[in-house]
Description:
The protein is α/β, with parallel strands linked by helices.
Amino acid sequence: MGKVVMYGSVSVDGFVADENDQPGALFDWLTSGDVSLDESGVLKVSQTSHDYIRPYWDQIGVTIVGRHVFDLTDGWDGKPPGGIDHVVAVSHRPAPEGRDPEAPFYFVDSIEAAVSKAQELAGDRLVEVAAGDVGGQVLAAGLVDEVRMDVAPVVFGSGKRYFGSVDAQHQLEDPDVVIQGNRVLHLRYPVRR
């Protein structure tokens, strides 16, 4: 089975969005360079960021998100983001009515079920867990192997926390990747077991 990786862009003070779910300058690094990160040509990063992020994105088989993120993005119009094969959404509500039944989205009611379904779908590819409440719950359950952060040089002061409502201490190993790109610091921490 592939690794489970908690991932997201984060402010220096630990937030993935402001109080109104707006990412503000967190994603400025995705348009601060001259190397295309995807085929759209919209995302352009530094060569350093490209060489780190593109191989990571290519390894992701499934992304796990919470229902809140799914609803905020309007289910990405039925197409998983970034060329990912499947999305597993954690929700205590049924799947939205009127959605395309062929879209590769799965709705489950617990983080354990989400990780199990995601690993089944991903095979030996990575399972990405979006940072925030669901990511924090998966970390707290001991199901995350690695934490990846794209730290943006912005301070929010308050908002939606990277680790959600985690209220216990969790040990990470020393970072095994520290890469500076334009407007971003890429960090990767193995989770201590």
